[in-house]
Amino acid sequence: MREAMITWMRRLAGTWFARALFVLLILSFAAWGIEDTLRNLGRDTAVARVGSDKIEVEEAQDAARRELQRVQRQLQGRIEINAAIRRAIASQAIETLVLDRAIRQEVERLRLAVPDEAVRDYIFQIPAFHGGDGRFSRVVFDAFLRNNELTEARFLGLLRADVARQQLTGAVRAGAAGPEALTNRLLSWAQQQRTASLVELPFSAAPDPGTPTQAQLERFHENNAARFSTPEYRDVAVATLNAARIMTEVEVSDHDIEEAYAANRGRFETPEKREIFQVVMQDEAAARAIAERWRTESDFAAIETAAQEAGGLASTLPLSSRTELPLPELAEAAFALEPGAISAPVHTAFGWHVMKLGQVEAGHIRTLDEVRDELRQEIAAERAADMAFERVSQVEDALAGGSTLAEAARRFSLGFFEGKIDAAGRTPEGTEAAIPVAAPVRTEVLRTIFGTERGAAPRMQEGDWGFMAVEVRDIQAPALRPLDTVREQVETAWVADARRRSQEERAAALLAATRAGKTLAEAATEAGLTAEELGPFSREASGANPMPRDLLAPVFELRGRDATMIERPQSFAVVQLLGITEPDLSGSTEALATLRTETTQAMAEDLEAQYIAALRARANVRINPRLVDQIAGGE
């Protein structure tokens, strides 16, 4: 039986069916090992494509992260970076990479070359790489490369690409020029002066409208319902949690503080810093000669001149710790110097250095007792932050299990508020609602509360406030308050409105009179008012300009003897143009030259922007929105 079974299996193994089965098994095991590859088969892994060039996820993520950090530094926490802003920042970073690729492709198409001499000259012109003598410093340059984790080859490649881009866009910008006809018109427009007649009609100077009747009050009350209605109130429950709230529960032992001090001792040590005057020569003999002269001549300016005449360089290294000095050999020699001593020549890759010790800033170590309270706070804050995340998970589980927000708040010692509030955070009684959050984030918290849907399940949201859960139980729409409860406010508003309408009618009558052919001064006299003649005045709003700031733009839009009527916060103004004084540009050579430069610069920027937009349009750009969303979400 056993031999028959073996014989049958051998026959089966020789069939095409068995061979196909083995192939399928092999393929299945292979697919198991390259699952990720198969999953991405047919899917585009590039965030963007510019022609045949790909921008991969990692490069786009790095660019988006740098742009986000730049924006956060600029905002300084004034605005919360939400999902929409993150996506806009990521899109902008990717667009910058796309434009860079499009320009690079055009450089390659035109076969633009950047000689080594051009790159070298470019580097030498960068002020950040200059030493104390105002010339290129190799020491400073190497320190820059180390601090930015760049190799020299990588940095030179970036500079070469930048120079090529400048060649390309510079050729486009070179065609920009501010024509004389344009700059003359612009300067004439900017320096033009005008004279005008002004009549001001303050609301407070209007005739007394008298006491309103009941019917007038009722009609005004109904027609201005929004002014006399209650605000929208929301019946809410708010629970908050943050590290500061939990810190009181954290215990920090003396042993914990001692361990933290030992682990972070370097934070509390201010190292000694030294100012070093140095001369760098290319051969040892010249360095020794400078050292001998320096020992007898203390004037560093004279030593600097002597070093330059001998083909060397002299510079001052600012106050630096041992680790901040660019080369270990220099650090060792500098920190072995005694005050006033001149070092023997020290050899490095840059030549032979001779040094003299300048100012010394002594080091200092803060003792454990000096930093004990500081460390206690730091340890407590760190542990409280960890505890907060753990407690948030517990709160979420409790809410998911059917607990109310009030029950979860009591159980887990959360900050809690419940009651009716308006969008300003005030209760129906007019008091400030005791929402348990810090004052700086209160506005953002209220915005979040009033952005939450009624009946939505509460969940812990992370923000500048720490963690917060909001439950909107009910929404009370605005309602018109009964007239009897707001009679005094309605009467005051009616009187103010009547005064305003009275002055509006008088201003309109003055304007109509000017359009009928009278001057504003004549119309004002007939109406028992006084017109004030102002000018000549310019467009520039300043303390010396007699025309009010908010009236300048309307006045400079008038033509001929036109007049206009403008409502101001507490008055109506009627203005009539009396005359225009055109400037004499014969003595404005310097102003014209400055304006021509500014106009040329603006036109050059416009030309460059249009050129780059044309390159992008021609580059067949394709962006993967799914991957952009992934990068914006921090994935």
UniProtKB/TrEMBL annotation:
Q: Which SUPFAM superfamilies match?
A: FKBP-like, Triger factor/SurA peptide-binding domain-like
Which residues belong to any copy of the PpiC domain?
271-359
Against InterPro entries, the record matches this protein to: PPIase_dom_sf (IPR046357), PPIase_PpiC (IPR000297), PpiD_chaperone (IPR052029), Trigger_fact/SurA_dom_sf (IPR027304)
User: Which keywords accompany this UniProt record?
Assistant: Cell inner membrane, Cell membrane, Chaperone, Isomerase, Membrane, Rotamase, Transmembrane, Transmembrane helix
Topological relation to the membrane, as annotated: Single-pass type II membrane protein
Subcellular location as annotated = Cell inner membrane
Instruction: Tell me one Pfam family matched here.
Output: Rotamase_2
- Would the keyword Membrane turn up in this protein's UniProt record? yes
Family per UniProt? Belongs to the PpiD chaperone family.
Q: What is this protein called?
A: Parvulin-like PPIase
